[in-house]
Write a structure and sequence with these properties.
alpha+beta; Elongation Factor Tu (Ef-tu), domain 3; 6-stranded antiparallel sheet; 2 domains; 9 helices
């Protein structure tokens, strides 16, 4: 996988409904791939649909999909001392953001997420987990009037860019969910594909899978492969099924999650491809979470769906961690599946 492009994607600022910077970058990358002028379309919601001609016409209409948006925070009020109140865009654990450096508003101001100091907490407060409404964002301002000149309610607070390869083949960054999927789709589009394939880069996954259903209704696929990041809880104190999946264990092929029962024939086919081509793989040991497959599955006339995910620690936190070997396993499986779904009996 093109590591520089992946890091650039992770560093872009684009939460749900504000994906324009991500979409513009993807469009700039697509312009270098010599696609026909009518092969790339942007719909009313902001989804990108890309039609890539392969060496042969598709026997079954296949959609490969990933979402462009990331979790973030949104300004809800300005306090008298100039600090900001906020809430989450998507599923963000309040405890994970305390003390984090952030980028605030259209001027991309530096900020820090603060909380009430422990000596001011009441007895009941000390025993409760933090919530968003007890936190604030400090941008160094001394008054409400000063802050209001630069920040408005509805502005976005993003986690600071922090992409870095570290350790023994690990990668950390904000927004791995799902800039990984976007990077993978670009890798596929860049290749000479064996069959015609449709790709969608969709919006607003983090707030309810809103873009994927619209894109799928337009693309009308028979089959869909969703590329994602999924929670790896392989941490100290986590045992058995609660670990869900593990870093270094390869591509995660799901058979069920909290939103979708995946197509059994597609699941079996993916496992067969991994075994036949020496691709490291695993499945989730706990039914949890969900992704755009749940919206694609029942959009329009419906589609048979499968999710392939990179295992990711600290999902939806200011910084997440994956293994680059797992990312490569997902890409290798994707490359095999584009041909296999056309040639296998399903």
């Amino acid at each position: 996988m093109n590591q520089k492009r992946f890091e650039t994607l992770c560093g872009l600022l684009g939460t749900s409904g504000r994906e324009h910077a991500v979409r513009d970058f993807i469009l700039s990358e697509l312009e270098t791939m010599n696609l026909p002028a009518d092969a790339v379309q942007t719909d009313r919601l902001g989804n990108l649909l890309v039609y890539k001609q392969g060496r042969q016409p598709a026997k079954r209409r296949l959609l490969c999909s990933a979402h462009m948006d990331e979790v973030a925070l949104i300004v809800t009020q300005i306090f008298e001392d100039g600090s900001l109140g906020f809430d989450a865009v998507g599923g963000v654990n309040a405890a994970a953001v305390i003390g984090r450096q952030v980028t605030v508003g259209r001027e991309k101001l530096p900020g820090v997420i603060g909380c009430k100091p422990v000596h001011l907490l009441g007895k009941d407060e000390r025993s409760k987990p933090a919530d968003m409404h007890s936190l604030f964002c400090d941008i160094g301002s001394s008054s409400k009037q000063e802050t209001a000149q630069h920040v408005k309610p509805g502005d976005i607070i993003y986690f600071q860019e922090n992409a870095q390869v570290f350790g023994d083949g690990s990668f950390r960054s904000k927004a791995i969910d799902d800039r990984f999927g976007c990077a993978l789709l670009l890798e596929l589009i860049e290749q000479e594909l064996p069959y015609d394939t449709v790709f969608s880069f969709v919006v607003q996954e983090e707030v309810g899978l809103r873009g994927a259903g619209v894109a799928a209704a337009a693309a009308d696929p028979e089959l869909a492969l969703v590329f994602e990041a999924t929670t790896a809880a392989d941490l100290p104190g986590s045992e058995g099924a609660d670990r869900v999946c593990t870093l270094g264990g390869g591509a995660v092929i799901s058979f069920i999650d909290g939103r979708t029962v995946y197509d059994k024939a597609l699941y079996d086919l993916a496992v067969q491809q991994c075994e036949a081509h020496g691709i490291c793989w695993q499945t989730k040991t706990k039914i949890a979470g969900g992704n755009d497959a749940g919206a694609i599955q029942n959009a329009g006339r419906g589609a048979r769906v499968l999710a392939v995910s990179v295992p990711c620690r600290y999902l939806h936190a200011p910084v997440s961690v994956i293994r680059l070997s797992d990312a490569q396993a997902c890409l290798s499986l994707a490359e095999q599946m584009i041909a296999a779904v056309q040639e296998a009996e399903l």
